[in-house]
Amino acid sequence: MMEEVKEVTSTLSVHGHNIKVTEVLKDGDTLTFLIVSQKLSGTGEHHVDRTYDDFEWLQQLLFSQEDEPGIQGVIFPSLPAKASANPSAKVMKQLGFLGLGEWQLYCKVLERYLRQVAAHSILSKNKAVEIFLTSSEPPGRQRARKNLFNRLSQAVEERRKEGYKRFLDVVQSEQKIAVACAHFSASLHLCVEPGEDPDKQAFSKACVQLSEVFDSIKKNMTSVAENDMNTLGLGLDLESRCQEAEKEMLFRRTCKLVELEAARRNAEKAKPLKKAAMEEAKKTAEIEFNDICVVAKQEVHRFRAARVKMLQHTLVQWCEKQLLTAKESADQFNQQLQAFRGIAP
Amino acid sequence: MAASSDRIPPPFPDTEEPGVCDMADGDRDEGEDIFVICVYGSFAFFIVGGGARVTSVRKKELSTSSGPPPSSSVTQSPAAMQPSSSLQQLEEEEDEDIFDVDVAVTNPEKIGYVLCPCICFQTSLAMFRSKAFSVRRRYSDFLGLYEKLSVKQSLQGCIIPPPPEKSVVGMTKVKVGMDDPSSVEFVERRRAALERYLQRVVSHPSLLQDPDVRDFLERDELPRAVSTQALSGAGFLKMINKASDAVNKMTIKMNESDTWFEDKFQEVENEEQQLRKLQVVVDSLVSHRKELCGSTAVFAKSMAMLGNSEDNTALSRALSQLAEVEDKMEQLHQEQAASDFFIFAELLADYIRLLGAMRGCFDQRVRAWQRWQEAQSTLQKKREVEAKLLWANKPEKLQQAKDEITEWESRVTQYERDFDRIGMTVRKEVLRFEKEKAKDFKGQIVKYLDAMLQSQQRLVKFWEAFLPEAKAIA
Question: What ipTM, to 2 d.p.?
Fold first, then answer.
C-alpha cells in the first residue's frame, strides 16, 4: 500500500513493497541480516547487511521526528525483541514463535517492519530509512534518548493474549510428538533380528515397515508444526505487537491531551504578566493535539483495515497449507497401507 | 476364488448369532453398558485368536441382516483379520492352526460393587456342551483361571498368557462410581486386556482342552476364586524372576546338549529388553499426544473468546469457525492417543509379560532336568547302600534297599521322560509364539495405519470446510 508515493519530498529511492530479508548470518553472538531492495529506477538492487542494533537506530530516528506535525499520532511499526545467535531461555520466551525454528520467522518479521516503514507516508520521508536501506556503510550509533517511544517492545510477552500463548503450547506439543515418533522409528530398527527363520523374518520386516510408518508420521507432524508456526503463529505474533503499537499511540495522544488541559488551566489562571505567554503555549498545545488527532484517525483507520487483511491472509494460508499437508499424509499412509496389505498376511 | 472343497463349513446352527446374545443384544440396543464376552464359534474358517471380525465375515457370507455383534470388542482384538478379506484368503489361512472358539469381551456391568463381564459364546466344537453361551465372570475369576492353569500347564512347558494386572486405584474408582475420563479409560483398558487374555487362552491348542478353561467358559456359577494374588505387572515379573534366581542358584549347572535352548533363552532376554525400550518411547508418545489434546482444547476456547470480542463480523465468524475446527481436532487427537495406546503400548506390555512367561517355561525345563539329575544321584546312592549291605551281609535290609532301587529307577526313567517331553513342548511353544507374534504385530500395524489414514481424511474434510470461511473475511 502507498507504494506509489512519488512526491517530490520523498527520499526513498527503492520500492517498499518487496524489500526482502534474505539471509541471517551468525557472527559469534551477533546476528547479521541481509537486506535486499529493488531500485525505483529499475536498474538493480541494493544489498546491505544490518544487525539488530542498526534496526534500533532506525527506530529511534523515526521516533525523534519532532518537527513532523502529529508524529505522535502515528502507529509505529514494531520491532521484535532482540535476538542473539545463542539466546538464553528468557530471550526465547520473549521471542515466542519467533524463537522456534531457525530464524526464518524472525527474518519475516523484520522484513515486514521494513515494508511497513517504507510504505508509511510520513515515516518513509525520513532520511534514515534511505540510509538504512541503501548505504553500504553501517549506519551510525545514536544514543537512545529516553522518551515515550522507548516503551515499545518491552515485556511484550506478559501482555500477550491468551490465544498466542495457547497456540504456542499447541505447536510445542506437536514438535514433541514429532521427536517421539522419530525416536520410536529409530528404536524399531534395533528390533530387527537376523536369521533365516521365516517367522523371525516376518517380524523383522514388520518392524522395519512400522519404522517407516512412524517416519511418515514424524514428517507429517513436523510439517503440521511448521505450517502452524509460519502462518498462524506469525500472524498472531504480528497481531499482538501491532495491538501494542496502537495502544502506545493512543497513550501518547492521551498524554498530549493531559498536557493540553494543563496548558488551558495555566492560561486561565495566569496573571496578566504571564498571560500572553500562557495563551501562546495553550495555542501551541492545541495545534499539536489537533495534528495528532488528525494523524491518529487516519492511522487507526488504515491500521484496522490492514489488520483484518493480514488476519484473513494468515488464516487462508494456514488452512491451505494444513489442507495440503493432510492430503499428502493421507496419500502416504494409504500407500503404506496398500503395500502392507499386499504382502502375504 | 476357488474354495477348497474339503473345507466346506458345516451348516450354521439354527440359532442365529444374534439369538445367541439375546440378552446382550437387547441390552445393547438400549445403550446399556453390559460387558459381554462373546465367544463366537467359527467353523473351519477360524484364525488363531481372531476376534468377532471373522464373525462379521461370516455374516456377510450368510447375509444375515441382524444387528452387529458386540462390535466394540472388534477394535480390540489383537490378531484381527480384515473384514474385507475374501473367503479365499480365509481358506488359505486354514492351513494354519484352526480353532473353533472365538472370544470377545464387551462392556462390563456393575452388579453391586463388582464389575462383571458377561460371556456369551457359541462354538461348533463337540467338546463344549452347547453351541451358544452366556456367562458372567468377575475379574477375580480370570485370575483364578490363570492360577489353576499356571500350576498345571507350566509344568508341561506351556506358555500361559498372563492376565491383566490388578489395579487397586482403578478398580476402587470404578466401584465408587466415579465417572471421570480416567476411570472410563481404565474400564476400557481392562475390558480390552481381558479380551486379549481370553483370546490367547482359547487359541492355544492344549489350553483349550483344559477342563478348567472349559469350566470357565461354560459353567453358570464358578466357585469364588480365593487367594488370588495381587498380580500387578511388577508382581508377576517378580514371580518369574524369583523362579529364575532359584534356578541359577542350583549347584548342578545344566550342561546343555542342545544349544537351541541356550540360544533361544538369550534371544528371549534380549527381546524383552528391546521391547521395554520401545515401551518407554511409546509411553512418551502417548503422553505427548494427550498433551496436544489438552493444548488444542484450551486454544479452541481462546479462539472462541477472541471471536466473540471481535468487531469485524466476518472475522468474528471465521474465528468462531476456527474454534470449532480446533474442537474437532481435539477429538481427533484424543482418538489418535487412544489408538497409539491400545494398539501399541498395550501390545508391547502384553508381549513383555508373555516373554516373561516364556522365560518361566525355560526355567521349568531346567528344573525338570535338575530333578532328573537329582533322582539319578539318589539312585546312585541307593545302589551304594545296596552294595554296602551286600558286603555287610544284612539280608533283612537288603530287600528294602532293592525295593528302593527299583522305585528310584522308575523315577529316573519318569523324570527323564518328563524332561524330554518338556523340552519338546517348549520348542513347540516357542515356535508357535514366534508365529503368533509376527502375525499379531502385523495385524496391529495394519490397524494403526488404517486409523491414521482415516484421521488424516477427516482432517482434510475439516480444513476444506474451513477454507471458504477464511476466504470470506472481507
Answer: 0.82
